[in-house]
Amino acid sequence: RALVKSPDQLELTEAELKKEFTRTLTTDNPHVPKNIVRYSFKEREYKLVDYMDQTAIHLSLNGNLIPKDSDEGRRQSIRSSIEGEKAPVETAAETSEEVEIKDEEHTGDTEAAGEGEGEGEGEGEGDEERKAPDEAPEVAAAAEAEEPPPPKVPEKKLANQFNFIERASMTPYNPLREKGCQSEPLPSKNFSANVNQWDIYDAYVEELQKMEKAKEKEKSKSQTVKKEEEKRGRRRLSTVELQHVEPISRISRAAKIAERMVNLNTFDDIAQDFKYFEDASDEFRGQQGTLLPLWHFQYENTKKLAITAISWNPKYTDLFAVGCGSYDFMKQGHGMVLLYSLKNPSFPEYIFNSNSGAMCLDFNSEHPCLMAVGFYDGNVAIYNLKKATSQPIYKSTAESGKHTGPVWQVKWQKDDMDNNSNFFSVSSDGRIVSWTLVKNELVHVDVIKLSREEGVQGPEELQLQTLGCGISFDFHKKIDYLFLVGTEEGKIYKCSKSYSKQFLDVFEAHHMAVDTISWNPYHLKVFISCSSDWTVKIWDHTIKTPMFVYDLNCAVGDVAWSPFSSTVFAAVSIDGKAHVFDLSINKYEPLCSQLVVTKKKNKTTHVQFNPVYPIIIVGDERGIITSLKLSPNLRKMPKEKKGQEVKKGPEVEMEKLEKLLSLVREPESK
Amino acid sequence: MEETEEEKKDEADYKGLHSFPLIRHSDMPEEMRIEAMELCVTACEKYATNNESAAKMIKETMDKKFGSSWHVVIGEGFGFEITHEVKNLLYMFFGGSLAVCVWKCS
User: Percent of chain B having pLDDT more than 90?
Assistant: First the structure.
């Protein structure tokens, strides 16, 4: 028993030799750490990893055997069968090549494996995890290495991971953008209607009537054109297109309204003044007042004509008529009668032309469309405004008793018992004639001849009756038969319709022609007269001498009472001034003397108050009518006493004037 | 008896007289209006007993000719309130008792 010991064997004692060492063999890999802690995101804390993979790989070797049934295996078998058909040399070469390939693969694999193994052993067996991904690309590379050879059959170029490059690229692409838009919705409108059987029937009946009317009117026009349009079914518009008269007349109304609107806009400030302006400075002016000029009415053709008469229409308070003619004996031409409306200052509403100058005019209060006009040649005519003609409907002629001198004034009377309208006229031939509209004619009756008291001694001692020339007259408001006539000699005759030969009374009124006479609208006894002898006189018809006399320093063309007060009247003088008097405020002086017409050589000829609005219109020699608004001072109403109601009405006016007159009257008379 | 005969005669007269197409309201341009009106007359005459078929024919033809979408109402007594595209409305009477309303609204 000789123990063979090697020379470098460890020398141990017998006790040490008998010592038993226990060695436990487990499957645990002693190199695997047992206390690895990993952060668990799920539980958000560090957790001890329980189990670690205990496998230790000592050797890894890639094989090159492919299962026969796999794709690659089948491909190879097909390839080998194809190659088997070719020359055996090639096959031998191929097989040798295959073998080479395989060897190379094998070597490649072993190298890889070796590498992998080397890696694994070098870094320790703890890195098994890294090995797994390492193996995968190696297997893939091997698989890829085998793929390229099959397509390149003739060349059999080797392609392995060392000379195979994958490259990829992508063409640039335009980024997408969204864009939207919406077109505007089509314009739409609502429409509603109701249809019933009777509605349809009515529409057809109406249409048929229109068609019949159109047929009658169109008989002169070509029938064929009309028939075509009938067939198409008429519409209202198409009927208008055929008839040329209708559209114009339809437009006229619209045009009129448009004209008024344009005028209102143009003269807007004047219209505002007319309606609303009250002169505030009147309070500081004491008793004086002013006249505010408003519109000027002018028509081209009347520039050379003087305004000879003004009259307001009793029904339409914005409509007034103006007569144009000439006062000059030598220059007598044509004449015109124009009707203006306050709503349209730029153009007259109605225009009537006449051969001789119109000297006077008057509206019939019962038939406001009838207007009587007296002419310079002695004729009288009646115009009807409702008819569209510009000719008078009735006219007097030499046979029917026209005057032999210019007709200075006409005045309508109440309809007589047969309901015929009649009017009076006074003229320079000294006759006062009453004209009656009987059926279609003007019938005249001489009412009075203005005979002078003193006759003229003619040859052979004949007394020749001469006739005075009547210039103006006025009828009493209440007493029908009573009227006053003013003559060129300055006398005023009080006459009655029933007595044709004699006068009731004579007033030696003025030294020159009495231009205007007017009864007071309220007081039954008072009248006013004005004359070219520069004076305006107020009378009580029972007393021979005037109550009030005003000297205006200039020939007075016209005088008019105001319709709202018994004590207010206006006068215009030839120098272009308008004077407004109020007897209850100032008995001796006008409250307002204002220059109305600015141009030289222009005389104001007539004045009239508007029955409703506080305005007066003044006519002059150039054919211009100026409208003026009375300031508040000029139209004062009596002041209210505390506790007492102010009575309004004609009685109050009468009392007012009576009071004034009683102051002036001599205590003897009355 | 005489009265009823007269009435019938009147009715026939009235139908005969009043059967021309009468346009009550339209804002279509002239050619479109004429075409639409003739189409309505044709349709109503063809489908005299069936308003629905007449309306269908009118609507489809108008859609083809003038674009979608058209609406057609035919009747003898109705009231309506519609919104229509401007210049695309026709409202007419025909045949003495029929009223046709054609309008476009998409």
Answer: 59
* Inter-residue long-range contacts of A156-161, CB under 8 Å, 24+ positions, other chains counted: A156/A94, A156/A97, A158/A101, A158/A104, A160/A108
Check pLDDT > 90 for residue A519.
no
Contacts with A41 (C-beta within 8 Å, 6 or more apart), sequence order: none
Q: Above pLDDT 90, what percent of chain A?
A: 1
* Phi (first) and psi of residue A520, to 5 degrees: -70, 135
Instruction: Note whether residue B91 is domain-resident.
Output: yes
ipTM: 0.80
Q: Compute the mean pLDDT over every residue in chain A, rounded to the nearest whole number.
A: 76
pLDDT digits (tens, 9 = 90+) for A553-562: 888 888 888 8
CA distance A536 to A548: 8
Label each residue of A233-284 as H, E or C: CCCHHHHHHHCCHHHHHHHHHHHHHHHHHHHHHHCHHHHHHHHHCCCHHHHH
Amino acid A338: pLDDT: 87
Provide the pLDDT confidence category of residue A288 given band limits of 50, 70 and 90. confident
- Inter-chain CB proximity B106 and A186 less than 8 Å: yes
Residue A286 has pLDDT above 80, yes or no: no
Name the nearest CA neighbour of A428 among A404, A452, A401: A404
The region of weakest confidence among A231-240, A250-259, A519-528, A529-538 is A231-240
Q: Between chains, do A233 and B106 touch, taking CB under 8 Å as contact?
A: no
Enter the DSSP assignment of A219.
Answer: G
List the single residue in A190, A197, A200 with the smallest CB-CB distance to B81. A190
Residues of B in contact with A186 (CB under 8 A): 85-86, 106
Q: How many domains does chain B have?
A: 1
Pick the residue from chain A with its C-alpha nearest to B90.
A191
Q: What is the pTM of this model?
A: 0.52
Q: Does A456 score more than 80 pLDDT?
A: no
Distance, CA of A322 to CA of A362 (rounded, Å): 10
**Closest to A339 (Cα-Cα) out of A630, A628, A625:** A625
In angstroms, rounded to a whole number, what is the distance separating the alpha carbons of residues A217 and A237?
Answer: 16
Residues ≥6 apart with Cβ < 8 Å to A88: none
Chain B residues touching A192 at Cβ < 8 A = 79-82
**Right CATH number for A266-452+465-637 from 2.130.10.10, 3.60.150.10, 3.40.50.300, 2.60.120.470?**
2.130.10.10
The secondary element (H helix, E strand) that includes residue A504 is none
Any domain includes B4? no
- A183 interface with B at CB cutoff 8 Å: no
SS3 content of chain B, % helix, strand, coil (to 5): 45, 30, 25
At residue A630, the 3 state secondary structure works out as: strand
Judge contact between A424 and A447, C-beta under 8 A.
yes
Range of the domain at B88: 22-105
For residues A215, A221, A223, A227, the Cα torsion angle rounded to the nearest 10 degrees is: -60
| pLDDT per residue as tens digits for the range A566-577 | 788 888 888 888
Domain of B76, CATH number, reads 3.30.740.10
